[in-house]
Amino acid sequence: MDKANYGGDHLLYLGDYVPANHEYFRLTDEEVVERFTAALPTINPSFSKDWIRKAWVFRAPYAQPVPYINHSEDIPALQTPLPGVFWGSMSQVYPWDRGTNYAVRMGREIAHMMLK
Q: How high does pLDDT run on average in the chain?
């Protein structure tokens, strides 16, 4: 996405999928950010920590929803019963595996629904 969509900022996703007992779950947010940003100069030697305006750390012991039997019968609609309220979640990409491409597709679908 063009940085114009983010007020001229660049968004960078740094992720890692680790076991639920990994040390990342015990570190502070600041320690996790430090670990990940320490590697950025290997990608861009001119990287400076001063460039970081905001960082978010998200943790979940399991990164993927595990559907139950007959999950396909209970997937909520993207349009909720509330007028103008839409909902998209990773559980709705079933039967596919989680993935940014599916989230983007769902987001676009919701955006088209909203524009109608």
A: 90
